[in-house]
Amino acid sequence: MKKSIIIWCLAALSLVAVIACNGGGHSTEKQQKKGKYTCTMHPGVSVDKPGVCPKCGMELVERDTTEDK
């Protein structure tokens, strides 16, 4: 009986530790860049990977898409 109580308590503590360390992912999501690339001459051009602008041929630059709050 005592062993099962101890095992349940350890399981509950480990679950709380995992949830606390994970933090729900809210703070890390805001800090990560989304990886959008855009043309400095054509801001309407937006792609997910680096390359060149299809309109003018200029190299695309990374745009910071994180929200400032």
From TrEMBL:
InterPro entries: HMBD
Keyword list, A-Z: Signal
Heavy metal binding domain location: 36-62
Coiled-coil ranges from the UniProt annotation: none
One of the Pfam families matching this protein, by short name: HMBD
Signal peptide start-end: 1-19
Protein name: Heavy metal-binding domain-containing protein
Organism expressing this protein natively: Mucilaginibacter sabulilitoris
